[in-house]
């Protein structure tokens, strides 16, 4: 269960900055083309997850269209708590991971530009994942980049979808920064949030100060969101 996830950490100093903030989860990116990629075979990656565990942080591994056996192997080798799927993985694929004892978060790519205004873009994007029992990460559709784009989704549309589907647990992602996370939480009703580029001083480089500011702003806004407190947490 997490409330504030800082995704794409690469260094021990990043983990320490997260541990010193109110954030309670980290994401490690195993998608090779990403600027946030960490090599699962490097001993330093296991050191990162061990450090995170020692600080009580949940460790989430980000994957895009990685073969199932490879995800299972990496999750065990670097001791992940949960894997986050960002590619074209099917429901059957996610269920097979769960059958192998791996917890799964499904990233849902919500279009940033919506042409058909008659349909809620979140409803359309969630599709069959809505009632499959997986925790969802509602993120901006970043095209071939798959995630970490810094683009925001329609928070009101998220709110409307969630109001109609209160049993679905989800996290808000996409373009969240310290200066907009409070508004995003208030508008969407999110109980948990995720950011990657919003706490970076340059692309792929985390800033301890930005992590601290983001996590403090998110924590304060989540505390305001009392009617939903404790709901929809992974
Ligand atoms: O961050 C990446 O580079 C990335 C690449 C491919 C798949 C997923 C990726 N990130 C996953 C995350 O959970 C990010 O935090 C999420 O996409 C939000 O990113 P941002 O808009 O930069 O806050």
TrEMBL record:
It comes from Stieleria varia. GO terms for molecular function: phosphoribosylanthranilate isomerase activity. The keyword Amino-acid biosynthesis applies. The keyword Transmembrane does not apply. It catalyses: N-(5-phospho-beta-D-ribosyl)anthranilate = 1-(2-carboxyphenylamino)-1-deoxy-D-ribulose 5-phosphate. Its EC number is 5.3.1.24. Residues 4-215 form the N-(5'phosphoribosyl) anthranilate isomerase (PRAI) domain. This is N-(5'-phosphoribosyl)anthranilate isomerase. GO terms for biological process: L-tryptophan biosynthetic process. The lineage of its organism: Bacteria, Pseudomonadati, Planctomycetota, Planctomycetia, Pirellulales. The gene is trpF. It holds the Pfam family PRAI. Belongs to the TrpF family. Pathway: Amino-acid biosynthesis; L-tryptophan biosynthesis; L-tryptophan from chorismate: step 3/5. InterPro entries: Aldolase_TIM, PRAI_dom, RibuloseP-bd_barrel, TrpF_fam. It comes from the Bacteria. Keywords: Amino-acid biosynthesis, Aromatic amino acid biosynthesis, Isomerase, Tryptophan biosynthesis.
């Amino acid at each position: 269960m997490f409330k504030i996830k800082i995704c794409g950490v690469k260094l021990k100093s990043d983990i320490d900055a997260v541990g010193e903030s109110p954030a309670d989860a980290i994401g490690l990116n195993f998608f090779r083309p990403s600027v946030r990629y960490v090599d699962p075979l490097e001993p330093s990656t296991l050191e990162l997850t061990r450090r995170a565990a020692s600080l009580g942080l949940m460790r989430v591994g980000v994957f895009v269209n990685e073969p199932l056996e490879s995800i299972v192997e990496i999750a065990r080798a670097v001791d992940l708590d949960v894997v986050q799927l960002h590619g074209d993985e099917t429901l059957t694929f996610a269920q097979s991971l769960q059958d192998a004892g791996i917890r799964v978060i499904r990233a849902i790519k919500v279009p940033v530009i919506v042409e058909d205004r008659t349909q809620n873009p979140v409803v359309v994007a969630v599709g069959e994942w809505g009632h499959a029992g997986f925790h969802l990460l509602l993120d901006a559709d970043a095209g071939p980049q798959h995630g970490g784009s810094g683009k925001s989704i329609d928070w009101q549309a998220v709110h409307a979808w969630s109001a109609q589907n209160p049993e679905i647990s989800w996290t808000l992602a996409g373009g969240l920064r310290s200066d907009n996370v409070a508004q995003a939480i208030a508008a969407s009703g999110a109980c948990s949030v995720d950011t990657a580029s919003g706490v970076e001083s340059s692309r792929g480089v985390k800033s301890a100060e930005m992590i601290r500011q983001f996590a403090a702003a998110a924590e304060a806004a989540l505390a305001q969101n009392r009617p939903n407190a404790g709901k929809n947490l992974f």
